Amino acid sequence: MLKKEIQELIDKGEMLPLMEEFYTIQGEGAHTGTAAYFIRIGGCDVGCHWCDVKESWDANLHPPTATDLIVANAEKYGKTVVITGGEPLMWSLDYITTSLNDKGIKTHIETSGAYELSGSWDWFCLSPKKTKLPTPSSYRAADELKMIIHNKNDFKFAEEQAAQVGDNCQLFLQPEWSKKEKMTPLIIDYVMEHPKWRISLQTHKYLNIP
Predict the structure, then answer these.
(1) Model pTM above 0.85
(2) Which of 58, 63, 68, 93 has a CB 3.0–4.6 Å from the CB of 119, allowing a cystine?
(3) C-alpha 10, offset from chain centre
């Protein structure tokens, strides 16, 4: 297939730069402990210095894969798919979510919200980053706001972001993994003083699963 033809399919969402796909237990946020099939799409320019999947940043490292094949693989595992990255909203996700929904599969996304919304979502997890703030469409779509706490200043940023989402959005504070020993006690105290928030932990790392 010619490079131009591949790019046209990527633009339509009929191919995506697939980094990895795997069936596991959701480790974070509102659906912690539930089984889900994860689709990790390559490409991200948000640039979090503490990102634990920096190998996802360069989309050119991850081969364009037919979206129909990705959906066929997902169909073998349960009824919930989580699309993550990288930054998945860099790509058009209308085609993949329509295909998954047509097969009765629920669609979840984990995103910084830095790009315009595409796709149809049963659950929208928004995790804003200071380096590239969410679009208005992402704030409106958010079912869950997951704020990563790396230092004390992040509590202020979390409150600023919470003011942008809807009243029914669930609010989570999650310690950045490398700072968990220092920040978790502060998060506990903060949630007790501000009970609109809940604590999210990266439980998959404690359980030693992907």
Answers:
(1) yes
(2) 93
(3) 20
